[in-house]
Amino acid sequence: MPLVVVGGLVFGFGLGLSHMARPEVVLDFLQFEDFGLVFVLGVGSIVAGIAFAIGVNFLDRAPLTGRPYARRLKSFDRSVLTGGVIFGVGWGISGICPGAAYASVGIGNYPILIAIGGMFIGAYAQGLWRARTSDEPAATSTSD
User: Fold this and answer.
1) What is the pLDDT of residue 71?
2) pLDDT under 50 in the chain at which residues?
3) C-alpha span between 44 and 51 (Å, rounded)
4) Cα separation of 144 and 67, whole Å?
5) What is the radius of gyration, based on Cα positions, of the chain?
6) Which of 15, 27, 120, 135 is the most core-located residue (most Cβ within 10 A)?
7) Within its chain, how far is the Cα of 52 from the centroid?
């Protein structure tokens, strides 16, 4: 668990330092005016790839959940496509993704709390919808 906290601290500090926690920077990227986010995403992807390679090969349990640490392949289906489109629209409208939104509060952007509230309401609404449309409740699903 301490490793997860340290990772979150590094993530949040890095987002703040790189200005990626500022919606105007993200919106500039989405409008093809500032490509700094590509560098941040690229470095993050490289580090995550290395961490997952090491985790799968050397750790027997995931740091946060304690479950066996293994790759989980998810098929590319309608839910992934629809969810990605909805996430992208929300990112474009708010100018910030969920991780950067939390870091944005840390740099004093308190109006972003409205977007964070919207994320929670949206996630809750999706959970209710999924529970009502599936045979088993979302809380007992192991496919996610």
Assistant:
1) 67
2) 138
3) 10
4) 13
5) 17
6) 15
7) 16
Instruction: Copy the structure tokens of residue 114.
Output: 């409205």
DSSP letters, 1-27, are: -HHHHHHHHHHHHHHHHTTTTSHHHHH
Enter the tokens of residue 102. Answer: 């939390």
- How many whole angstroms separate alpha carbon 49 and alpha carbon 94? 28
pLDDT at 142: 52
User: To which H or E segment does residue 49 belong?
Assistant: helix 36-58
Read off the tokens for 75: 């098929």
124, 67, 60, 14 alpha-carbon torsion, rounded to 10°: 20
- Angle formed by the axes of helices 112-133 and 78-94, to 10°? 160
Residue tagged 């088993």 (tokens): 136
pLDDT score recorded for residue 124: 92
The string over 109-120, giving b where at least 16 C-beta atoms fall within 10 Å of a residue's C-beta and e elsewhere, is beebeebbeebe
- The contacts of residue 111 (CB under 8 Å, 6+ apart) are none
pTM confidence score: 0.61
Residue 101 token pair = 């939104």
**Domain coordinates in residue numbering, the chain:** 2-140
